[in-house]
Fold this sequence. Notes:
single chain
Amino acid sequence: xxxxxxxxxxxxxxxxxxxxxxxxxxxxxxxxxxxxxxxxxxxxxxxxxxxxxxxxxxxxxxxxxxxxxxxxxxxxxxxxxxxxxxxxxxxxxxxxxxxxxxxxxxxxxxxxxxxxxxxxxxxxxxxxxxxxxxxxxxxxxxxxxxxxxxxxxxxxxxxxxxxxxxxxxxxxxxxxxxxxxxxxxxxxxxxxxxxxxxxxxxxxxxxxxxxxxxxxxxxxxxxxxxxxxxxxxxxxxxxxxxxxxxxxxxxxxxxxxxxxxxxxxxxxxxxxxxxxxxxxxxxxxxxxxxxxxxxxxxxxxxxxxxxxxxxxxxxxxxxxxxxxxxxxxxxxxxxxxxxxxxxxxxxxxxxxxxxxxxxxxxxxxxxxxxxxxxxxxxxxxxxxxxxxxxxxxxxxxxxxxxxxxxxxxxxxxxxxxxxxxxxxxxxxxxxxxxxxxxxxxxxxxxxxxxxxxxxxxxxxxxxxxxxxxxxxxxxxxxxxxxxxxxxxxxxxxxxxxxxxxxxxxxxxxxxxxxxxxxxxxxxx
Length: 524
């Protein structure tokens, strides 16, 4: 599962900055719309803004190293020591003594390896070990031996070394990569799992990937592992792929190979099936698909394989499962699946794709996630809003369904969360851009009070987006401007008159509202 570094910041600051830069251009265009700008112009500036925001939301890499936790009290009993002694770092002399015992082939080699493995959990012990002449050669010798117990203990020692972030320790492990790959075709599931996570840890290092693992054939081997009937092997293969797909050269060296193989097909299959028993594999593969999609190497291929409809069905199934069971832990799968769908829907090629689900069914599933993960996991709510934004952009069917759902008041309540307000306002703008009848319904559903309250927020980009929405409402439904003035909206706007970023918008919106009110008074 994605434990370390799994909960990303989601680029909220970057997205806000991007929206601010795009906001000035889009606001000027929307002002021109009042003087006869066409509907196509309005769609054009919205596409420009969407492109900037999507670019800003390409996430930082979430590479992490993973340690398998297979240890039990039996380990301490085998070592013959206390818990504190077992987890303590080893001195240089102790490391040297253990290595001599292992080399001499005495009866307690397995016990010595076990004690060494515990010591290798500490960085100082790792560096002491690799400095000893022949130490890695001895370890690899035992790893490739025919004695199963020694082989497994040596593999665990290599696994501990792979967890190091020190470049010298990582480099010392390189002679083992060919053997690690070889044993992925073996019969011991426990050893295969251990080798996979060791390779996944080493794959963090760019040079290891390009100089060792790719030439040694890691992609074909993973293509075989991901088809294993064993869930732990599927999950381990997904972990290695997730690490590889995040490397700096992934878009040129790795992702094309993955797309040419059957791997991406099986990743999608694991995301879509057996969620009850294989959710760990589904999580790893979903993140892997997310990294492939973010690279934009060949998203048209993924779209042609009906990836979007398949993932939408996963979301519906997850919503059903969350409705009947505890939602704890599901956020680790919901997040990457929602991201995959959002990013694929943003592609030009997906414009006419058949979603294979009713608009209301999909929206209801997203609101299940929103309600379940509020307020503990706001980042999931943000991702769901991003998908709703992509679904409603230039799509009257989704706008109509959302506007007439019983969940719509929940959407307005999300404006009180500063982290979510920007995305809520963008979705509401998508609805308002559909024209007079939609703006009339927004007005009837009491959208003005929360919009006026949002004008008091300190975030300039949010206030700017709020004013864009108000501008659309006034344009298509002038009665909204009358109520806005009656509800002290002008006073809420005036507090931003000295803000250099906002004063042009403020001035234009005040003028628009005042003119519309005066016009209604002249022609009641």
